[in-house]
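User: Teach me something about this protein's shape.
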Amino acid sequence: MATAISSLVSISLVLLFSFVFATSADNHENFIQCLTSHSMNATSISQVIYTPNNSSYTSVLEFSLQNPRFLTPDTPKPLVIITPLYESHIQVAIKCGRNHGLQIRIRSGGHDYEGLSYVSHVPFFILDMTNIRSISVDVENSTAWVQSGATLGELYYRIAEKSKTLAFPAGICSTVGVGGYFSGGGYGMLHRKFGLAADNVIDARVIDVNGRILDRESMGEDLFWAIRGGSGGSFGVVIAWKINLVQVPSIVTVFRVPRTLEQNATMLVHRWQYIADKIDNNLLISVILNTVNTSEEGNRTVQATFRTLFLGRTDELLSLMQKNFPELGLVEADCIEMSWIESTLFVYGFPNGSSLDVLLNRTPPSRPAFKGKSDYVKKPISEIGLEGLWRRFFEEEGAGGRLIFFPYGGRMNEIPESEIPFPHRAGNIFHISYAVTILEEGVEASNRYIDWIRRLYSYMAPYVSKSPREAYANYRDLDIGQNNDKGKTSYAQASVWGVKYFKNNTNRLVQVKTMVDPGNYFRHEQSIPPVSPWWKKRGN
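Assistant: First, the predicted structure itself:
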């Protein structure tokens, strides 16, 4: 009897998966037919459609796939990849995706920490924005239009082509795509002076679920508010952003000063917490924590590297440091004067003297598999707390660990929490970025490294924000909660992770989502869900 039941279950599963596969295949073929039949130029769109049968499919998929943790044989792959050349291609893709039940994943630079811009567990296609990447800089008005497929490096490069004293407050990693970065807020070396990238967005072009192309005026202030920090993939496809550029000196000063535990790193990091958010707004000092080998073979120690950008000259910087942080022992030989555009290479870690052309490279120098998390700190961590952190670094998997303490204060304190969806403003001393590089091959090894960073995150709980334990939306972390893969997600379920990213802005994001995409076409594991009106819930 048991054998018969087992056989029936096996047959049922085979039939089920055969049905799912056949349905997906049908959707895939019908989707492609829809794309070509509804496109104004069937030839042009056929040139940007890639299926698994296409010889270029794998290279297109992997080109902007920045975390090899999601490049395994078991990782779900898209049925189709579209690399649109024109806005009309995006409009048709949305229309056909809706009509044929294929989920859309929108990829700008491919840096999503959980791979959500190129992985889904339901039938899906990737809208890869690589070709939608033009940048137009208006020096006279200190503005620029930048399309979502451009990278931060490309944006910086095009600004510097036109001006030596204009800049934009954005991130350190030059290969990050503008679309995803702006959508989550976007902090960087200039945010204490000028705020986030999203704080400096003044207009946008969005294609909504109905295929309409909207600007700030036609989309309305609610949707314009939501796309600036409410995270990507929820409200539509943002094609382009108009940004305010900022004035910087023609010469800035940088330094990178490493200190190990044997060189009083514990005391220095502890002291840094008391000045990092209060020091002059023109100065940002971040701290990078990792292990390095000591002179003794096989031994490791923790190193804290103090990385700085100052909007001014060396003599003024030395005076500020002597007044506010003399313990670091900064000397003139540590400081390097350069242009702002050169500083973007320095803080990223390119070798001194590198050509500015490296900013145009869309692929990073290396792409290790990793897992990331984030936190916000409102009270200084004690030296005892830091010493407990160091002990985690000395565990075997800690060799792949890297933390960055990134200071807030300055302009970040002045902008209200509700100004845009990004809420992490006054009251935060610094933000913690956690990352662990997976240094060994295989699923078991990968799980060990991921377990290590989860243990580290648990250890840090007493020292970081509470109720909620805040997190940064651009450092996507499915450990803090996620939506249902299939079916509806309740407001209560989405709030588990939503309030950590957006705090009290979560409710307004849900309201905007309900207004602009009530059918929830634009969705993923941490997209903003719509809510049904109460009378629909009651079936009235």
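Now, about its shape. Confidence is low (pLDDT under 50) at residues 1-22, 534-540. Residues 85 and 131 are 6 Å apart (CA to CA). If you'd like, I can walk through any region in more detail.
User: That's plenty for now, thanks!
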